[in-house]
Design brief:
This protein is α/β, with parallel strands linked by helices and about 200 residues long. About 30% of the residues lie in helices and about 15% in strands. It contains six helices and six strands. The protein has a six-stranded parallel beta sheet, sandwiched between helices. The structure holds magnesium ion and zinc ion.
Length: about 200
């Protein structure tokens, strides 16, 4: 049984302000409360993994390697505060793309749980002790489908709130810090309780 527990983080609109299809590192900054929130979570024993849809690759807006600069900028902003991102997972796919290589119905684009499931294997993660934080219900669904608990930050980016199986977040937070505090307050909840909640979705 794996022991490591993770907070999976959506990138755009959660970790950093959502600048659509941006790969310019100069336009990358952290959302308010992210540093403080991640410090609390780190103290609680969580590691951090970014889980991000990047359909701009399939749409031909930028090359997949341009995401490196974005990663480096986020790392720079966080490392100076003593926080590390363990790993980044990007889904470059979209069914409505222009770049043939990436134009397909994949298993990794959220709301599918493929990236999280891959991370749990790669990094030996205890999925039932882990959480997904995002800014839309697709993030919550991906986390819930993977067997994590989930939080949606209600910052206005989710506008439709379409309900469905696995689309009920464990908690709806006001901001990143609120999300982090909720996780810290509920991190010792047992797997059984988690499963009961999942079964009820
Ligand atoms: Mg987002
Ligand atoms: Zn994908």
């Amino acid at each position: 049984m794996y022991e490591r527990k993770v907070v999976f983080l959506d990138k755009d609109g959660t970790l950093i302000p959502d600048v659509p299809y941006n790969v310019n590192p100069d336009l990358v900054s952290l959302e308010p409360g992210v540093v403080e929130g991640l410090k609390l979570l780190k103290k609680e024993g969580y590691i951090f993994v970014v889980i991000s849809n990047q359909a701009g690759v399939a749409r031909g807006y930028f090359q997949i390697n341009e995401l490196e600069k974005v990663k480096q900028k986020i790392d720079l902003l966080l490392n100076t505060k003593g926080i590390e991102i363990e790993k980044y997972y990007f889904c470059p796919h979209h069914t409505d793309g222009k770049v043939q290589e990436y134009t397909l119905a994949c298993e990794c684009r959220k709301p599918k749980p493929g990236m999280i499931l891959q991370a749990t294997k790669d990094l030996e993660i205890s999925v039932v002790q882990s959480w997904m934080i995002g800014d839309i219900l697709h993030d919550a669904e991906a986390g819930n489908r993977a067997g994590c608990r989930s939080i949606v930050i209600n910052n206005g980016n989710e506008t439709e709130w379409v309900e469905g199986p696995f689309r009920t977040p464990t908690y709806i937070a006001e901001n990143f810090l609120d999300a982090a505090k909720f996780i810290c307050a509920n991190s010792h909840e047992t797997k059984e309780l988690n499963d009961t909640k999942l079964a009820a979705l």
